Amino acid sequence: MGIEIDDNTFRVTDMLGVEDAEALLDWLIKHPEGTLELAGCTHLHAANLQVLMATRPRICAWPEDALLADWLRHALNQEE
Amino acid sequence: MKRILVIDDAATVRLYHREILEQAGFAVIEAINGLEALEKLEMEGPFDLYLVDINMPKLDGYGFLKALREKDIPQAPAIMISTESSPRDREAALVAGANLYVVKPIRPEQLLPQVRGLLGEGHPS
Amino acid sequence: MNPLLDQFISESRDAIQSIGERLMQLENTPDDHELMDELFRLVHTLKGNSGLFDFPEMTRVLHGAEDLMDTVRDGRLGYSRSLADQLLEAMDFVSGLLDEILAGGDGNLPADAERTAAATALTHSLRQLITTRAGPADPETLAADPLTAPIPATPSPADAPANVTSPLAQIPETARMDACRRIFQGQPCSWLSYQPEEECFFKGEDPFHQITQLPAPLWRRISAREPWPSPDTLDAYRCLLHFESIVPMDLQELTDHFRYIPDQVELTALEPAMLAIPIGDDHDGIPTADYLQTATAHLRSGNHEGLIQASRLLLELSSPGLRVASALRWLLLVLETRPDDVPLLQQLLDNIHPGVAVGDDADTAIPAAPSPPVTGAQGMADPIVGIIETQAEILALNDTPPWLSGRLQAVAASLRAAFTLQGQLKRLEGLDEALQTAITRHTSVPLAHWLAEHVPASASASAPVTEPATTDSPAPIPSGIAAGAGETRKFGRRMEDAYAGPSAIKVDQAKIDRLMNLIGEMIVAKNALPYLAARAEDVFGVRELAREIKGQYGTINRIADEMQDAIMQVRLLPVSFVFQRFPRLVRDTAQKLGKEVRLVLEGESTEADKNVIESLADPLVHILRNSLDHGLETPDERRAAGKPVAGRLAISARSESDRVVIEIADDGRGIDPAMIRRKAYEKGIIDEQALERLTDQEALNLVFAPGFSTASQVSDLSGRGVGMDVVRTAVARVNGSIDLNSRPGAGTRLRLSLPLSMAVTNVMIIVSASQRFGVSMDAVAETVRVAQADIQRIKHQMTTVLRGRVVPLVALNDLLALDEAQIPNEDGEMAVVVVRIENDLLGIMVDDCRETVDIILKPLAGFLGNLRGYAGSALLGDGSVLLVLNPRELL
To answer: Would you give the DSSP letter of residue C322?
Structure first.
């Protein structure tokens, strides 16, 4: 439930649970230009992951957790 | 104390629910199928909440719910508990008169907030 | 153990038992739909219960079984023997797990790769039945198992195109080389492809968590199993993810990690040969022929330096994007780290032949199986939000069933509760009015309107959600309140009946035993009252009191008798408790022996004490196996003998006064007395004289003699050195008897007679060497007084003649090794208890015979338990202990 929203930024402060995916998707649909700030994100449930993959939002800060950041970069940029 | 009627043909499931609910301070009454649930309703009802399994002998969960909702008694919420997560099963449950549709396996941390929500009873903390 | 687990194990055992029975019944009536429904439900319940615990293998197998039974119930698949076999095997597996859980004691089932593999295999074969027989196959289940169909390990030019399908070929060379180096350094690496089920979120799974728990992969790709839908049609809760990676873990660890969802992952232990796949464009114009000649020569002669030089040279000549360059890089890698791996080097050299290009096209490997999006995310969010959303969904239903009014009231009740919990009581304004209007107009609309006004859908996501999460201020309600509206979906489930659940309660065995022991003690204690009455009169001289005590004794006696009778009733079990295992036993055994058998069970509802019934199980199983193995002939033999091809095996039970009689009859080849005589003689069981003297019946009874086995070879089924003597001993232990009848060529019949109850034994008290002993009245034929003059000695054996029959006599003191002579009465007569052992009479001389009493016989415990000759001990009314003799064992 660690979500803070101001104007055009969706900030994740700890974990995104399964129940947050709907809200995240909703917000991203309504804010196609919105930015995601994931610095404080410790984990996100797979449902959120697929929301991100399907919507490809702008991400202004990647998680501080290097392992998670790595996974997300791979998922969203498909670097190989 | 709020009284919850737990309807399931599996004794293990009934015991499981009983343990969760009693620990949370609710009174639990059990029925082994829809028919027995209707009898309990007649004798000890109405209850404050119903936890209903779908697949049961004699009278299944759908049948029980419909019969319950046709009764001229104070209507309390019902949670249907299913193993099927398909939208079709879910809708059938809602049509029959369930107020929530929950897919097994049921974990206490999932069930209790829902039960409290439907009973309008908050958690002390 | 905790009560829930207890309950689970006991309910599961019952269900497994019932499943076995129903399957047997289905064998006779394969079209019985009620039976199929019942079977389905049994498996379904079992699976549901197992899901409450952490027994993934059990749940998996049961899930497979449930799906199979669902297919059968729907008529998509007919009953067949192989189906029954599969299900029975699955149940055996579950049964075994239950044993393991029980043995563990703490309700845990530690991970075990073997078990996981067994569960996977079992589930696979269950599903195989569905796909192979149930018409249009499910593409998912048809997909080749990656572990049984591994990536080709040694790609040669001939099968190079096959490499295109190897998911490993899509991985960049650098990553594969990295993995290969690690493997060479001793770090095992595995290939993982994890495609979670679409519905997995609803099962509480988080695939991303599963994946991030693993060590950082050497390579990874996260994709979707179908192109991502546009955001506004995306269902966040239908999992489309597909993870692929190379993980620095060995296969075992990885298998353990995914042991809950083995069917969603493909796991392969990586070998260098699998990774060394040269990729790139075809190499026209590169002078490979000369190189190959030199390289092959160097490889054969083991000249690694030469091979390295030649390879480097060619690599410099080749453009890096060519397949030949790739092959050379691999070659050099292997030469640096594992120059001795000649087969791998050869494999790489083979790749340099001009041939079909190895594609690096990754897309072909992703199956595209688009299916219509499914909604159904509600109920997972914040509980209150979920509740309100669901009520909105119910109100959006546009049906008007007869129970609409009740449904509306329940919706209103749910909303009231949810809002109350939110502390938003003022939101409830107008709810009752809206409800009333809705009920009166027999439509959900007014209530739906009310809800829409009070919970504006648009107010949700745009509002800042900065408050900390507490139960009082949940997240705003997301939109989607109207989800499900306007969609008309079919539903219809028949009301299920036919399964007659027992209306009895289950009581723990130990509790009943305790109650019985208490009643037993009560009966014994009550026996003290007559002594007390006698003392009141004789010692204290108050006759009046003595009479009152006797009066009270009468009342207590009657109640005690009724209590005893009642507890006996509780302990009664139908013989079906034992019989129900037989259909399967007979079926399996007959199948193994290649015989055809028709099993007839009669009198299954005959009841007897639980201990008696339980003690029957093993002897009966042995007798059945004997009949199947030795009694019944093979179909050919039967045909030749002019009998029906299928043998008949009948087991019947009935009550005869206070005994239960069980007969096992077959129409097999019977037992030949002459053969028995010869065998017994050969084995030294009888001597030459007996050979002549024995009647046919007496000869037959020799099969019960220790050390006798009628089969010339001890077969796998009935053998293992366990003969009919063991059966007889087991039956005798519960005061039963057994006799055998047989007609050669026509069949054999065994008759077991057992007491209905073992709890209370009527014993005669006898006195010998100034001690009191008990003898079970079941064994006593009569008591007589024999004048000393009438006792003859034949050789060393004392005998007497009773009604024209010679009866051997033994002195109890001799049997008990008491160094005292038996004392005759005043008239010089010896008291003799005549006992029946099998069909022979034996006179036991004692000092005196006294009254008979009912006692609760307790087996001798501890060291005394090894004492032969005693059936047990009992407490008498005066507080003394009575040792009860077992005449058969005394001899």
So the answer is: B
Euclidean distance between CA atoms C746 and C666, whole angstroms: 8
Q: Which of C503, C620, C519, C502 is nearest to C571 (CA)?
A: C519
Residue in C205, C221, C462 nearest the CB of A80: C221
Q: Is the ipTM of this complex over 0.85?
A: yes
Q: Give the list of residues 6+ apart from residue C302 with CB closer than 8 angstroms, or none.
A: none
Q: Is the peptide bond before B105 cis (omega within 30 degrees of 0)?
A: yes
**Chain A residue nearest residue C229, CA to CA:** A54
Please identify which residue in the block is written with the tokens 């290649």. Answer: C594
Structure tokens belonging to residue C593 = 């022996």
Q: Which residues of A touch C466 (CB under 8 A)?
A: 4-5
Q: Residue type for C180, please?
A: C
pLDDT at C456: 54
Paired tokens of C9: 């194990």
Per the confidence metrics, is the pTM higher than 0.80?
no
The two beta strands, C659-666 and C647-656, are antiparallel
Tokens of A4: 């803070």
Q: Which has the higher per-residue pLDDT, C527 or A25?
A: A25
Q: If 0-12 CB within 10 Å is exposed, 13-18 middle and 19+ buried, where does residue C100 land?
A: middle
Alpha-carbon torsion (B33, B37, B40, B42), positive or negative: negative
- Tokens 């007798």, located at residue: C623
**C340/C334 Cα distance (integer angstroms):** 9
- Crossing angle for the helix pair C304-317 and C288-301, to the nearest 10 degrees: 160
Residue bearing the bigger pLDDT, B1 or C458: B1
Q: How far apart are alpha carbons C840 and C816 in whole angstroms?
A: 21
Residue C204: its chain B contacts at CB < 8 A?
105, 107, 110
- Which chains are adjacent to chain A, needing at least 3 Cβ pairs under 8 Å? C
Instruction: Give the count of beta carbons closer than 10 Å to the beta carbon of residue C722.
Output: 15
Nearest by CB: B117 against C204, C418, C501: C418
What is the distance in angstroms between the Cα of B1 and the nearest Cα belonging to chain C?
Answer: 15
Helix (H, G, I), strand (E, B) or coil at C281: strand
Neighbours of C10 (CB within 10 A): 15
CA distances from C90 to C26, C93, C145 (A): 17, 5, 20
Q: Are there at least 3 beta-carbon pairs closer than 8 Å between C and B?
A: yes
User: CA-to-CA distance for C418 and B117, rounded, in angstroms?
Assistant: 5
DSSP helix/strand/coil, B38: helix
- Burial (CB count <10 Å: 0-12, 13-18, 19+), residue C68: buried
Give C-chain residues touching B118 at CB under 8 angstroms: 387, 414, 417-418
Mean pLDDT by 10 residues, chain C (891 residues): 80 88 82 84 87 83 86 79 85 88 76 80 82 46 38 38 58 87 88 88 85 88 86 86 91 86 86 83 67 80 82 76 83 84 82 48 35 35 78 86 90 88 74 87 86 60 36 40 36 34 64 82 79 88 88 87 83 83 83 86 85 81 85 89 89 84 90 84 79 81 72 44 71 80 88 77 86 86 88 85 87 86 87 84 90 75 68 75 82 72
DSSP C82-149: HHHHHHHHHHHHHHHHHHHHHHHSSS-----HHHHHHHHHHHHHHHHHHHHHSSSPPHHHHSPPTTTS
